[in-house]
Amino acid sequence: VWSNATSFIGTGFGVPNALTSTGGSAVGLVFNDISRGGDLTVVLNALASTNKVDVLSRPTILVKNNQEASIKVGSQQPVITAQKSTTDSGANPVVANDISYRDTGIELTVKPQINDDGIIQLEIDQALSSIGQTTAVEGSPSFDNQQISTVAVVADRSLIMIGGLIENGTTNKEEYVPFLGAIPVVGAAFGTTSTKTVRRELVLMIVPEVVDPSGGEAYYKEFRKRVQYAAAVLESSFSTEPWKPMSMPKKLERILVPDR
Predict the structure, then answer these.
(1) Which pLDDT tens digit goes with each residue over 62-95?
(2) How many angstroms separate the CA atoms of 63 and 61, rounded?
(3) CB-CB neighbours of 52 under 10 Å
(4) pTM, two decimal places
(5) Distance (Å, whole) CA 46 – CA 49
(6) Which burial class, exposed, middle or buried, applies to 115 when counting CB atoms under 10 A from its CB (0-12, 13-18, 19+)?
(7) In which region does residue 157 sit, left (phi positive, over 0), alpha (psi from -120 to 50) or beta (all else)?
(8) Is the dihedral of CA 44, 48, 52, 58 positive or negative?
(9) Exposed (0-12), middle (13-18) or buried (19+): which is 51, by Cβ within 10 Å?
(10) Distance from the CA of 143 to the CA of which of 29, 74, 105, 135 falls in 20 to 30 A?
(11) How far apart are CA 237 and CA 241, in angstroms?
(12) Cβ distance 230 to 252 under 8 Å?
């Protein structure tokens, strides 16, 4: 399905060793023109077919040259920061909690610098924060944080792919026979407990594009069409329905498939 989807968009990427490493942490950084060859589609096809790929976010940022822009996608998690114990008029204990909120989700910050030849120097800061699996204090969950900061120098419409933020963990799963598994002492004989090792890797893909301000309204109309089309292709790639060819308007094709 991924190979079908990318046949329209014309994408092909090289894959660094960090993405196929079996252990440890590493960072891979690859720059390729998005219209040239490579085999990331093969990797993504294999992962998508086994439901091992999750698209966390696909934001788009329009930013002025040499200015910083950021986008956040996520929610706020309440966290207990302090507890106060007092008694009421009846000498009953009363506990008051001070609550603060912590941002979770994805935050992307970029700052481009474009030279006279159209080469882009891009400062990238990507942060991912999520609620952890453990809770040190009741009401105060732990947080898992991943962050990538780097500077890339690429041509217009080239792909920047950053990977290697690897997280290893374990999950325990318990299954019991209904009713029998709840019997004290002997209930354990009617169930099983399994431990599964989970390995996750965060991969960031960015395609910077220089926009001519004189393009005006026409560019933004085509840009909206491109986003809608790319979203449809991505969603159909993970669908279990048989893939059907989709037509691409010529104007849209010129934007999606660069002439290189």
Answers:
(1) 888 999 999 888 888 888 888 888 887 777 888 8
(2) 6
(3) 11
(4) 0.56
(5) 5
(6) exposed
(7) left
(8) positive
(9) exposed
(10) 29
(11) 9
(12) no
